[in-house]
Amino acid sequence: MYLTIDGIEKSFKNEKKESIKVLDKINIEVEKGSFVSIVGPSGCGKSTLLYLIAGLDKADTGEIRVAGKKVVKPGPERVVVFQEAGLFPWLTVLENVTYGLKLKKMPKEEAKAKALDILKMVHLSRYVDSYPHQLSGGMKQRVAIARALVMEPDILLMDEPFSALDEQTRMVLHKELLEIWRKTKVTIFFVTHNIREAVQLSEKIIVFATRPGKIKETISVPSMKDGVMPDSVTLHTEQRVLSILQEEIEKVLKEEMGNDYSFKTNHIHRDDSGDMGSHI
Amino acid sequence: MIAGIWEVTSRLSSLPDFMFPSLTQVLETLFKGLMSGQITEAIGKSLGRILIGFMIAIIVGLILGYFIWRFKLVEDTLGFVVTALQSIPSIVWFPLAIIWFGLNDFSILFIVTIGATWTMTVNATSGFRNVPQLYQRVAKTYGSTGFHFLRTVILPASVPQIISGLRIAWAFSWRALMAGELLGGGGGLGQLLEMGRSLGQMDLVISVMIIIAIIGTIVDNVVFSRLERNVQLKWGVK
Ligand SMILES: Nc1ncnc2c1ncn2[C@@H]1O[C@H](COP(=O)(O)OP(=O)(O)OP(=O)(O)O)[C@@H](O)[C@H]1O
Ligand SMILES: [Mg+2]
User: Given an 8 Å threshold on Cβ–Cβ distance, is A134 in contact with B236?
Assistant: First the structure.
């Protein structure tokens, strides 16, 4: 298996210095070139898992291997796209995109040419010399994606990359991301709150249970690589993911609002503009 | 307006000219002093001192700030000492400096430096500490470590705080410089001030005061404000 997550456990200390288990016995196998999404209630440890894969944090037990090699520290072959773009405000768009390339000691001219190519792909050619604050939220996120893609990583780790964007921008970026994925065959590990997003983009959806975070179920999305799926099929998958999640959402809400709260399943319906499940 | 009131009160007042000179007299002395090189030389000497002292303070402050930020042990020990030292006005160091180095240029340089160093350290530390986690994570995923990480993320991200540190540090060392020169001699604007006093030349004293005010304002408003504004513009901070 290309990416192996093997028996990962992770705890954090809370304010009272008590140890809280955030991830419990996580085992995931991801094939090279696949697109895997993780959905789960807020606080279930999705970001934590992503940072562990990135090597930004260390697990208490278990190990993560990429192509057989154990992950011990961050590296440019596993690039993260964060929820906020995280562009460096003191660098121009071009300088932001070439940041990683320069670290790889790529010659200046080559790095620049590459960066310009990628920026063209995300339709930002006109903004190469702008500073991040001159861009809109969606444009910033596109630069962040370009900055990650230009590294030609083996694995692209995305932590709710589109959640701060409006529906139109998100749809455009979905399309762009899928095109890029098909073209480059990069392995994508995608964390989201949005069930519909997960169903539309990924081949496999991992649903997380919470407190402690563990895998509740893994769902394969009917193949969509060779075209658009009929609405009924995606709707069916969305419903399935949602029904699995409901129990977890209820658990979270109960904890937060007291036991008298009951999650009203009937009130969930699909409306075409809404982003289903984004309330979790 | 103020100039007018000054001129009139000085001419009408019963105080002798050398104690309360008129504006025209002061301007004349100022002009002569600049021409003859007396004042210009003093300006050169003072600026030279502060430049050296300030540079050392910035470098030492950044280095100390780095260690306090980076190592918990240093933070718990040195960090505390620095906060305490920061509250000592730098001129208080002067007697000690005289004993250590004698009444010379070096003593003045010492208090100029020490006045700015602690402020610089405190500001650098808090600047480094406040670098958003997000920037640090981003840089690390691209493989930045060690000195590269410091140079491309930690330092630039703390620039706004470092600039405000520079500004306060400058004000501190400028005051320390004047006090030191006034007491320690060895040329410079402070000594010229003292000379004016002992010769009973109030027009010279006021001329020097004007120069001190002008230099202080120029550096604060032109150099640091502009620096600050440039950064804000580039970063898009209002
Ligand atoms: N550095 C930390 N120190 C202490 N606790 C932490 C730390 N990072 C995360 N946690 C805790 O771990 C849990 C999981 O956090 P994580 O950010 O992984 O959740 P998430 O699934 O990404 O949530 P969301 O969907 O809201 O982003 C949370 O309860 C959080 O409070
Ligand atoms: Mg998260």
Answer: yes
